Amino acid sequence: MLAVVGYAVSAIGYAFLLLLILTVRKSGLAKYLLVLATAATSVWSGVPFFFAELSIEKIIFFDNVKNLFWLLFLASCLKDNFKNIQQVLARKETWLIVSLPLFGMLIPYLGHSLESWQYLIQTTIALEFLVLLEVIYRQSGDNRWALKPLILYLAVISIFDFLTFANALMIDQVHVYYLSSRGFIYAALIPLLVLAIRRVKNWGVEIYISRDIVLHSTLLLVAGGYLLFMALVGYVVKYIGGEWDTSIQVVLIFLSLTLLLALFMSTSFRTRIKVFITKHFFANQFDYRHEWVKLTECLESPQTEINEINLTALRGFLQAIEYQSGCLLRYQHGELIKLADVDHSDLNDDEITVLLTLSEFFKQKAWIIDLTELRTHPHNYEGLKINHALLNQARFQIIVPLYKDNEFWGMAVMLGAQHATKKLNWELRDYINAVTAQVSNFLFHQQAAKELAENAQFAAFTRMSAFVLHDLKNVLAQIDLILCNAEQHKNNPEFIEDTFETLHHTKARMEKMLSQLTEKHSTVASSESLVLLSQCIEQVVQQRCATLYPTPNVSVNSETEVVLDKEKFANVMYHLISNAQQATRDDGQIDVILDKSDNEKYMLVRIVDNGCGMSEAFIQTRLFKPFDTTKGNAGMGIGAFDAKMFLDKIGGQLSVESEEGQGSTFTLRIPI
Prior knowledge:
By secondary structure, the protein is an alpha+beta fold. It has helices at residues 2-22, 29-45, 47-50, 56-77, 85-89, 92-97, 99-106, 115-138, 144-171, 176-188, 190-199, 211-240, 245-265, 267-281, 288-299, 306-320, 349-362, 371-376, 388-391, 426-489, 493-518, 533-544, 566-583, 616-621, 639-649, and strands spanning 325-332, 335-342, 369-370, 398-404, 407-415, 528-531, 553-556, 562-565, 590-596, 602-609, 653-659, 663-671. A hairpin with a 3-residue loop joins strand 11 (653-659) and strand 12 (663-671).
């Protein structure tokens, strides 16, 4: 019955290890071979439960299956550059290594069923394991420390198997004590295999063992040691003998179980063990991976109002150190303003006085303050002078200062439940500092986002004003054109007719601008229509670009009508042609060429000049940047930007080719 328990524990242990390995997302040859070897060992451990009668032939058969997969795993460890199982099986050495277990599985089918042959093969396999382990250990180099647990795990198993079958070879049978012990030995060696998996990084397997599991494992170890001691005492009593031996054993069992139960129910005992584990088995007090995930989830919760943002920041502090109540305070103009609180009543006058005193200290030193420590060891806070009578009335323990741009901004005040406060040691201070950095970034980022949203409304108004000024400048240019030609052509009826037409056009543009400024929610009716681009461009050149030189030459290679807003397109062409005129000498040349694209899906408008040109850096960083101009006060810097935005909106494209001193070419791709 005891042997069955050992095999059951081994089967469960290896099955659990198999699940841990399968949960690892990383893939790799070592992982897959470990899965096979661990699964084979788990099945091997469960063999006694699969068969009602278990013969020595079946036991050895499953031994060979288990050994086959472990030898295959060791064969893959002989070199560290295997990519897949095919590369491992392609080597002759691999087939030589696994030949013994394969031969052992085939012996019953070859007519050789002598048990002595099977014992000899199993003994030889155990020696083969030891030889391979020595080879792997010798060639491991810098990886020797990581491989030691694996070497120890397989070496102990191989030595035990060697003793088992070497003894069977001498007496022609396997001793039952060896078979009964195998399950316990395999189960006891599982931690070595887990340690090896954690150490060897190039296997691609990373098993995480939580702090709670280690605590429970330690408690089980303590319980096992205690019960072992009581069993030895009982054995001594039975060995001494006497008529009272049975009664004494019963009394010892019940007293030991009672004492063990009392120890495990004691909170102080469990706390002492947990502190012992923290000090001696872990470098850190907190499971930082778990704590960081919790803090991230807390700060990622959606917030829309500033009050919700402040409350989320406070909760981030509280859950980080597992405190239950606190408040977030803003220091402004010598006063404290409560922004958020969790299960914390209003501050009384004494507490406010204490916090104001601490605020002056925070302006000088960014120290986290533990009021419990401050009461008992005030010398730890050099330079902090405070009324201890008021300090004893404070209902909080930890005060964490917050800083914005290296200026004291406010503080988080926190208190834990009774008997659950934490001592502010060096590790807790570092941890709270890291949490403070994250919470402060969240808090100030959210506040900045709110301010940015408000400023965006003013920026939108400013931007609209800039475009209005730009349009006014165009209107002024049209009026200036009329005045320049009035003295010479004022008696010409055609000039007067053109003047009235221009004035009507100017009036319509100004009315449209006033409408956009005064009617915030008005819907602008679409003015898109079929437009012949050449006609629109000719009109822009004659009516709006005639006062500057050189005069553009418009040529049409091929053309078709397109659908767009004629007035907006005219503004775009005016900006681009006017910029070309200003960049080109009066005796230079500007050509506006219209053509269809090769696939006839776009109309191409090229504005080519031989002016001063632009550098590639200027085109990439400044040309399409709004409100950036090279004309000083004479320009607004939004002409090229407006042209690009217009073409992007209609599904077109504006591209620029230019070379300093050679000229520029602006190409407009307009969808047909």
